[in-house]
Each structure stands twice: as C-alpha cells, then as structure tokens.
Amino acid sequence: MYKILKAEELTANIYLMVVEAPRVAGSCQPGQFVIVRTDADGERIPLTICDYDRESGTVTIVVQVVGAATRMMCRLKTGDSFHDFVGPLGRPSDFVSEDIESLRKKKILFVAGGLGTAPVYPQVKWLHERGVDADVIMGAKTKDLLIMEEEMKAVAGNLYVTTDDGSYGRSGMVTKVIDDLITDEGKSYDVCVAIGPMIMMKFVCLTTAKYNLPTVVSMNPIMVDGTGMCGACRLTVDGEVKFACVDGPEFDGHKVDFDQAMKRQQIYKTEEGRAFLKAQEGDTHHGGCGNCGGND
Amino acid sequence: MQTDVLKKVPVREQEAKVRAANFEEVCLGYDKEEAMCEAGRCINCKNAQCIKGCPVAINIPGFIEKVKEGDIAAAYQIISESSALPAVCGRVCPQESQCEGKCIRGIKGEPISIGKLERFVADWARENGIKPEGAKEKKGKKVAVIGSGPSGLTCAGDLAKMGYDVTIFEALHEPGGVLVYGIPEFRLPKRDVVEKEIENVKSLGVKIETNVVIGKSVTIDELLSEEGFSAVFIGSGAGLPKFMGIPGEQANGVFSANEYLTRSNLMKAFDEDSNTPIMRGRKVAVVGGGNVAMDAARTALRLGAEVHIVYRRSEEELPARVEEVHHAKEEGIIFDLLTNPTEILEDENGWVCGMKCVRMELGEPDASGRRRPVVIEGSEFTMEVDTVIMSLGTSPNPLISSTTEGLEVNKYQCIVADEEFGRTTKEGVYAGGDAVTGAATVILAMGAGKAAARGIDEYLSK
C-alpha cells in the first residue's frame, strides 16, 4: 500500500496528491510516469509524475476526473492509501542525459496545456536547479482551470499564461502565444517541449513546424501494463510502430501521426462512458449510457 | 472400477456447449478412485522414459506408485521435490510431447495420463492443507529473483528449500506472471490454483515485492551493490508483442493477444463488474496457431463472439497443445487454416470492418523443418470481421538488458545464458525462461528456473 500524505483539490475536478513511494521517488526522472490503482479491483491508470522528493521518498501526482476509475481515485483523502503505485515507467526526457554546458546555451520553450502543466513542471524545475531558465507558456480554457501557476513562476524564466476565453492572462490558444512570441516579440528558441491534450500537441507541432522549431511531445495513449507487454499504447512515429510505454512517452512531435493516435484514444470511449455512468448511478443505472440495457 | 488397460481412465469435463458460455474450468479432473485406477495402469518401468521427458525430472513412477497405494500425501512430497507448481503443470504442460510422449504404455495403447494424475495429487494436497517441506537450515545469503512467473517461482522455491533468503520482484500488481495475465481462468483457475501455489512458495519463506520494475524502479547492479543480494535470477518473461506489419494494423479493434488476455485475465474484464473495458466483438479473427492464440480465441468466444483461428500452415503444424485445439473445436471455434492476412480494412471511423486474406499451400520444408507456406496466386478474399487479435509471439523486452552493464544478449535480443546452470555473461547473474529462449512453455521455463537455482547454489557455495 502507498500512503497519501496530502490530497488537495487544485480546482474543480483536478486533484494533487503526494504519495509515499520510495522506490519511485528514488529513481524517477523528468519525463517519466507511474501507473496507479486505487483498490484491489481498480483499473491501471497511467499518470505523469508532477514532482518528487528523493529524501522523503514521495512522489506528487495530479489527477483529473475523466472516468469511473479516476473518479474513485479522487475520492481518496489524506491518510488513505493507493493499492498499487508502480514506476518510474517510460524513458526520461532526452535533456536529462545531455551535456549540461550545451544545455545551458539552449533556449527552451515549454508549452503546457491544461493538465499538461503537471508533467511540464518537473522538467522546468530540473532545468532551473541546474541553472537553465526556460520560457513557459501555460494555457487553459478558462481562469478556473489553471493549475500550479505560482509553482511554475518560481522555476520558469518567463512565464506566459493564456486562457482561451481571455478570462486571465493573455487571450487565446497557446499556439497564438507561440506565434506572438516568435513573430512579434522577437523571441527565438532552439527546442520546444509541448505537453497537453493530443489535439493541442498536434496544433503546437503544426505551428512550430512553420519556424523549423524542433518539438518534443509527451504521448498519453491507452495503456494496460506500461512495461512493453500489451502493445495497447502503440502509435506511428515517422512511419514506424512505437510503444509509448517503453519507446516514449516523449517523441519528436513533427513525426507523430496524431490523427491516428487520437482515433485510437476513442477505442473504449463507449465502454468507459458506460462504466462511468454505472459507477455514478449505481443500482439506478438503467442504460442511460445508450450502450446497455442497464445492468443486464 | 473396471477399465481397458490400453486406455486412459476418461477425465470429466464441462460439456462443450455449457462451457462455451462461462469462464469456469473446462477439465474437472480425476477423483481419488479414478486416479488410483489410472495409476494402476503404470507398469513402473525400471528405466523410466517419462522422467527423461520431464523438463524438471519429476520421479513420475515414484509418485504414481504412491497414488496406486492411495497414499496421496506421499505422492505430493515426491512431486514437490522437483516441482514448485504441480497443480499448474498438471493443467498446462504439453504432456503429449513430454512425459506421456515417452510412456512405454503409449506404444501399444494410450500412455498413462500423467498430467491428470499430477493435477489430482496437487489438488488433493491443497484441499487437505498439505504444504511442501521447507529448509531445515538457513544459508544466510540473499538472492533476488526478477519476475514471479513459472521460472521465477520455481527458482525461488528451490533456493528457499536450500535455505537461501529469497525476494521476488514483480512488475505487475499481482504475482504469477503469465499464469495470471496470460492463461485464462477456464484453463487455470486463479484463486483456487495459482494463488494457492504461490502461497506454497511463500510458505517456504520467499518474499514477493510487487510493483517493482527492474531496470526502472531499481537496477540489477543496485540490487547487488546496495540492497545486499549475493546473486540475481532474471525470469522476466517474454516481451513486446509482435505485429504482422500489414496495412490497417493500427485500426481500432486490432489487439495483441497479450493485451486482450491481460485485460480479461489480470484485470478481470470478462466480469461485467470490472472497471477495465474489453472489446466484445461480434466476429473475431485470431491470427496465429499457438497456445496463446487458442486462449485468446476461447476467451473471445466466451465473451459472445463468433471466432475464427486464422493460421498460415495446416492443422499438423499448429504449435498449440493437442488438448487446446481439441477443446477449441468442441466449443465451436472455426479454424481457417492455410490462410494468411494481407490487410486489415477499416471503416470511415477507423474501426476494423474486414480482413483481406490469401490462401496458402505447403511447399518445401524451411529452416524450422516445417513445410513453408506458399501463397496460392489469385486466392485473395475478404473476411468480414470487427475485431482482429494478433497472436504472433513476442520479442524480448529490453528493459533489463539495456540497464544492466555486462549482460550480453544474442541477435534476437534474448539474454545469453547457458543451459546447464542459466549462467549469464555477468557474474552472479543467472537467467532462464522466455527472457532467454523467447516465447516457450511454462514447464520449460520451470526447468530453466530449476537449473539456475542449482547454478546459484553452486556459485554461492564456493
């Protein structure tokens, strides 16, 4: 069992949890993820690592309620425990193994969309601790959905916050901010790291391609084991089949087949929706999901 | 009970029509009377060939003699000297090509039903609370075992019996490896058989730490230098599922058999109350002809689909156990043999709607000694399916080999280890099972785990 030392609601339906997991905390690096199960019957949920503390043996995760399993997970309070917490999985970000001197000369732009702020944070923090200040664009649909702004401000070089509806910070999508920074504000970058919903990463890649700006994305497809056994997370990168769990999760964004990846994310949409409705409605579920006749 | 001495005492099974719609065990096994009667057919050969056919060299005539006498507890202790998982092996070993294949009785009639007798003895011991005997003296040395599948459990059990302090590290949330994620409930019950056999291994003093991915959570070098282990056995199993490389394979509704079976077995997706989803196809094609293909096909059938096995060679070359093919046919699986897919067709939303195939014929033998399948010109046709399950084997997982200095792999990326003791190219590190051989059987992995236990003991006794 893996004890939750702190559980906090960051904003509606988004929760931050600090979990006691010494093996993961001792070996994880920016870019990697964990798989978590709430209870003995729980689904295996891949989640990005938001922060870690090697001394105290803790790992911080950020979870958004999107289905039955994440809903169960977010009901847990400080002092409760996860049944399983395994990792770190996937490969660390490439820059972790780069020569630090050449890294200090690079101008890096991070683009974090929505929940993508959580995995971007440990990367920016890692760089900051080594004297590399990266610029960060943080975007959300609206002001209430922004998370970790203060934390990010403390480790980023320049932080540009934007909301789609203009309720806070700049107004518009993250792609607009990229355009504005590069074309109007005279910024130039050597590499971009974009993490967020697949549709956002796709459009960031289309934008950065215009400027020949190499772009790394972190893919979050459906997974089961997360160790290279099941192949559910396969995607096409530069015409080749890759497994996000062992070959990624980070890939060259300009080579990822996003349309296929987004289509593959829909595989269990009806099954998941059904499970979610069933969990929410309990015994009163009578087939409102449109896919079943209630409990039969 | 009177029987024809040339024939096996028949074993009771769930009727095919009934079992095709449930996940309960297919074979019901012998009772004591049936087992004693079957044991009575054994002629107790002096130079027993069956033992030579057993990868873990169980004293087969020895335990059968005890069954004949009705002393099942004694029979169990004889099996336990050689096997940590008799209830599993009695169910999943390919006996026809091992012990039973060598049985002298088999020359003139049917061989002794060794597998069913082993299963009976193990089940009886479990029901009567009999446990294997543990070590009398401790050696005071720690050994790490990576993976809790058949090779890891066997190696750990043997080392514990020798007195070593053994810890198994398992990447998944439940121990058992392929016994839990791969082989379905209807062939190998999890709670009553697998869990109990793992408890037996634990009762020998073996510790199991789940949720540890060696190569990620901790490396082999760290286990040796920082966590006080004197030797390591790698039994990390098969690996990444293979796909055919044909167009349409990324369509929604194409799964690896590993994914499909893991969802159903480990995550219990066959149960409506499970939180893990699984595709319940209407018409499913399973591509491949091994045990895993049979397991996937029979799972899909139980989830309500019409199921076709699509295999490019003929029935004779099917690598699956004879019993699995027989059971699959009885249950209504359709075998499309000498058939090979060339393309998976998707509808406008990216879902599988069909599979283009060609007919094959057998030509000259290839490197494997099997006759090479050759495409029949102009034989292309389309099968209408909504789900395709690829069961084409696996290629080794690089997680451990890429993070362990000095551990050599061969051109197939399998860990190099000698057959006699499982020695790798790194001192103190041993390996066995699918991580070394590529996908094979439970019992071969157990044989390798056993050999490595002897190797580790010899190394640590120096």
What would you call the structural class of chain A? Answer: alpha/beta
User: What's the main sheet of chain B like?
Assistant: 5 strands, parallel
Number of domains of chain A: 3
Arithmetic mean pLDDT of chain B: 93
Terminal Cα separation of chain B, in Å? 54 Å
Description of the structure:
The complex is a heterodimer of chains A (296) and B (462). Chain A has 296 residues and is an alpha/beta fold. Chain A folds into three domains: 2-89, Translation factors (Elongation Factor Tu (Ef-tu), domain 3), CATH 2.40.30.10; 100-218, Nucleotide-binding domain of ferredoxin-NADP reductase (FNR) module (Rossmann fold); 222-244 and 259-284, no CATH class. Chain A contains ten helices and 16 strands. Chain A has helices at residues 22-27, 68-74, 100-104, 117-129, 149-155, 174-184, 198-210, 244-247, 258-264, 269-281, and strands spanning 2-11, 14-20, 33-37, 45-53, 58-64, 81-82, 84-89, 108-113, 135-140, 159-163, 170-171, 191-195, 215-218, 234-237, 240-243, 250-252. The model of chain A is unreliable at 287-296 (pLDDT under 50). With 462 residues, chain B is an alpha/beta fold. Chain B is built from 19 helices and 18 strands. Chain B has helices spanning 16-19, 32-39, 49-52, 60-69, 72-82, 86-92, 99-102, 105-108, 114-127, 150-162, 178-181, 190-203, 220-225, 257-265, 291-302, 322-331, 398-401, 434-437, 442-461, and strands at 12-13, 27-29, 142-146, 165-169, 207-209, 231-234, 239-241, 254-256, 283-287, 306-310, 334-336, 339-346, 352-365, 371-375, 381-383, 387-390, 394-396, 429-431. In chain B, the strands form five sheets. A five-stranded parallel β-sheet of chain B has the order 5-4-3-6-18. In chain B, strands 8-16-9-10-11 form a five-stranded parallel β-sheet. In chain B, strands 12, 13, 14 and 15 form a four-stranded antiparallel β-sheet that branches. In chain B, strand 13 and strand 14 (371-375) form a beta hairpin. Chain B is globular, with a radius of gyration of 23 Å. The mean pLDDT of chain B is 93. The interface between A and B is large, with 45 and 41 residues.
